[in-house]
């Protein structure tokens, strides 16, 4: 079976003056690595800021908090803003695995606040851009 995909790549070059003129987040509609470091998927774990890492961090924080377990795909000691000692949580299994799956199906949903996470740089919960 063969699948053909059409991809279009866009690159935007921004001058340093434009970056400093507009504030990060809503006004600029993007973050630099120095503007935003979510817990879990941050530079200490080898990640750079990307919207997908921010959304993953929001989802994992909510799995910790709502399901009281650690997703099986985390193979390091997570640092959570919402749950103390998140690294000691058990791996999601059974009913907790179903709870995790339900949250993963809501990826980025603003109603459930899965589009925002704590920013270690500013010390505030901010929306992922």
Q: Which characteristics define this entry?
A:
mainly alpha, single chain, globular, two-stranded antiparallel ribbon, 129 residues, 26% helix
List the SSEs and their pairings.
Blueprint: H1 16-21, H2 51-67, H3 95-104, E1 116-119, E2 124-127
Antiparallel strand pairs: 1-2
Structure, explained:
With 129 residues, this protein is mainly alpha-helical. Helix 2 (51-67) runs antiparallel to helix 3. Helix content is 26%, strand content 6%. The N and C termini lie far apart (36 Å). The protein is globular, with a radius of gyration of 17 Å. The relative contact order is 0.17. The chain has a two-stranded antiparallel ribbon with strand order 1-2. It has 3 helices and 2 strands, in the order H-H-H-E-E.
Task: Provide a brief overview of the structure.
The chain is mainly alpha-helical and 129 residues long. Helices cover 26% and strands 6% of the residues. It has three helices and two strands.
Fraction of residues in helix: 25-40%
Please list the strands of the largest sheet in the order they lie side by side: 1-2
Structural Rg? 17 Å
Q: Whole-Å distance between the termini?
A: 36 Å
What is the number of beta strands? 2
What does the overall shape look like? globular
Structural class: mainly alpha
H-E string: HHHEE
Mean pLDDT: 85
**What share of the residues does DSSP label as strand, in percent?**
5-15%
Largest β-sheet summary: 2 strands, antiparallel
Query: What is the helix tally?
Result: 3
